[in-house]
Design brief:
Order of helices and strands: EEHEEHHEEE
Strand content: 25-35%
Shape: elongated
InterPro entries: L1_C, Transposase_22
Number of helices: 3
Largest sheet: 3 strands, antiparallel
Number of strands: 7
């Protein structure tokens, strides 16, 4: 599954605190993608502990996604499929066409 796994560097938590983060480096991208895809629709567990998977993203990317969340919510409400692209862009797909929104552009073609 993964060839490296370790706990995230954090201050040791007290007994009963929320679980620690674990970072896993997957051997292949296809394995990682299969596990992430499976986890979207299914609950992953280790013993009695539920496991939640988050993609490791740069703080700047997380900030941009937060800023563009209203646009993403509008796309979702209008049943328009979308994905986040590399080097930060938002790509939407509808009626066989795709639209790309880059930073500084208005979202008009999306809506």
């Amino acid at each position: 599954m993964g060839d490296k796994a370790h706990r995230a560097l954090r201050i040791k938590r007290s007994e009963g605190a929320s679980p620690c983060d674990v970072i896993i480096h997957f051997t292949t991208t296809t394995t990682k993608e299969a596990i992430v895809k499976y986890s979207r629709d299914n609950t992953l567990q280790y013993g009695n502990t539920e496991i939640t998977i988050y993609q490791d993203l740069y703080p700047a990317t997380l900030q941009r996604r937060k800023e563009w969340k209203p646009i993403a919510e509008l796309l979702h409400q209008n049943d328009i499929r979308y994905t986040w692209g590399h080097h930060f862009k938002l790509m939407a797909f509808q009626a066989g066409k795709s639209h790309t929104l880059l930073p500084g552009e208005e979202p008009d073609p999306f809506l």
